[in-house]
C-alpha cells in the first residue's frame, strides 16, 4: 500500500471519527461542565498530597518549614503537578459558562465576555502557585531562609488573588438574576451562591500582614472557609451548567449578540416569559 493510499485511509477514518456522536457539540459542552468538578477535586488533592491539611504554620522557623518539605517531598511535588492541572480544567468550565450565558435574553455581550476574561485570568491563581511550589521543593539543599521565602510566596499567591474570581462570579450571578423567563436557564439560588462565595475570599487580602489568627494563611477566614466554599461552588456551578446544556433544543439554538441599554418593562417582560424555552 502506497503512502497516498495510507493517507486517504487515514483521512477517511478521521472524517468518520469526526461524525461520531461522542464528539457532538453537546457532549463537548458536557465535558467542559464536568471539568469544573475535576478542577475542584484536583485543587483539594493538591493540599492533601502535600501534607498541607492542616496548613503549615506561618510563624514556623525556616528550619521547621524545610523539615516539612523534606518529609513530604514526593507529596509536595505531586501536589504541584495537581494544582497545575486543576488550572487547565478551570478553563473549559469558564468557556462553557460563557457560552451558555449568551442564551439569556437581554444580557449585554460585555457580561459574558467579563465572565470569560476573568475566568481565563483566574487560571494563573492555580498555575503560578503550582510552579512556585515546585520550585520550592526543587532544591532543598539551599539555605533554609530561601526555601522559607519561596514557601511564603506559594501561600500568598495561592490564596490572595481572589479579585478575578469575584469579577467572574458576579458577572455570572448578574446573568442569572436578569433571566426573567418562567423557566430560567440557571436556578436563581446559584446567583446568591456566586455573590456570597467570592465575598468570603476577601479576608485573604490581609494574609501578608499577620502570622497568627483567623487572617493568617492557615486561618479559618483565609483557608478553611474560602477553600471549602470555593470547591463546593465550582461543583454546584458545574452541575447547574450541565443542566443548562441539557436544555438546549435539538438542532441547536440561534444566538444573536445584542447590546441592550435597559431591562425590559412590564409588557416586554411578559413577552420574554411567554417565549421561555
What's the short version?
This protein is mainly alpha-helical. The protein is built from 11 helices and no strands.
**Largest sheet: number of strands, sense, barrel closure:** none
- Let me know the number of strands: 0
Tell me which oligomeric state these chains represent: single chain
Tally of DSSP helical segments: 11
Task: Provide the succession of SSEs.
Answer: HHHHHHHHHHH
What is the helix content? 55-70%
Q: What is the distance, rounded to the nearest whole angstrom, between the alpha carbons of the first and last residues?
A: 54 Å
The rough form would be described as flat
Secondary structure class reads mainly alpha
Low-confidence stretches: none
SSE layout:
Blueprint: H1 3-18, H2 25-49, H3 62-71, H4 73-101, H5 109-122, H6 124-138, H7 144-159, H8 163-178, H9 189-201, H10 220-246, H11 266-274
Helix pairs in contact: 2-4, 2-10, 3-7, 4-5, 4-6, 4-10, 5-8, 6-7, 8-9, 9-10
Tell me what the structure shows.
With 277 residues, this protein is mainly alpha-helical. Helix content is 69%, strand content 0%. α6 packs antiparallel against α7 (144-159). The radius of gyration is 23 Å and the shape is flat. 35% of the residues are buried.
Keywords:
mainly alpha; 277 residues; single chain; 0% strand; 11 helices
Amino acid at each position: 500500500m502506497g503512502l497516498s493510499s495510507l493517507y486517504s485511509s487515514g483521512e477517511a477514518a478521521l472524517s468518520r471519527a469526526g461524525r461520531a456522536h461522542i464528539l457532538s457539540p453537546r457532549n463537548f459542552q458536557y465535558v467542559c461542565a464536568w471539568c469544573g468538578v475535576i478542577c475542584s477535586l484536583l485543587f483539594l488533592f493538591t493540599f492533601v498530597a502535600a501534607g498541607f491539611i492542616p496548613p503549615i504554620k506561618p510563624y514556623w522557623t525556616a528550619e521547621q518549614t524545610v523539615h516539612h518539605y523534606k518529609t513530604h517531598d514526593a507529596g509536595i511535588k505531586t501536589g504541584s503537578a495537581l494544582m497545575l492541572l486543576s488550572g487547565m480544567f478551570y478553563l473549559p468550565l469558564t468557556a462553557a459558562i460563557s457560552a451558555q450565558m449568551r442564551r439569556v435574553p437581554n444580557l449585554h455581550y460585555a457580561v459574558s465576555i467579563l465572565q470569560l476574561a476573568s475566568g481565563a485570568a483566574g487560571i494563573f491563581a492555580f498555575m503560578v502557585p503550582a510552579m512556585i511550589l515546585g520550585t520550592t521543593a526543587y532544591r532543598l539543599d539551599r539555605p533554609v531562609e530561601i526555601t522559607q521565602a519561596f514557601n511564603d510566596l506559594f501561600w500568598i499567591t495561592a490564596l490572595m488573588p481572589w479579585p478575578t474570581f469575584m469579577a467572574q462570579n458576579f458577572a455570572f450571578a448578574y446573568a442569572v438574576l436578569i433571566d426573567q423567563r418562567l423557566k430560567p436557564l440557571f436556578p436563581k439560588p446559584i446567583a446568591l451562591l456566586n455573590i456570597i462565595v467570592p465575598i468570603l475570599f476577601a479576608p485573604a487580602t490581609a494574609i501578608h500582614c499577620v502570622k497568627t489568627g483567623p487572617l493568617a494563611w492557615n486561618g479559618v477566614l483565609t483557608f478553611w472557609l474560602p477553600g471549602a466554599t470555593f470547591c463546593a461552588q465550582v461543583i454546584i456551578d458545574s452541575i447547574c451548567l450541565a443542566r443548562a446544556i441539557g436544555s438546549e433544543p435539538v438542532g441547536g439554538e440561534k444566538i444573536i449578540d445584542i447590546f441592550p441599554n435597559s431591562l425590559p418593562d412590564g409588557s416586554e417582560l411578559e413577552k420574554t416569559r411567554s417565549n421561555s424555552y
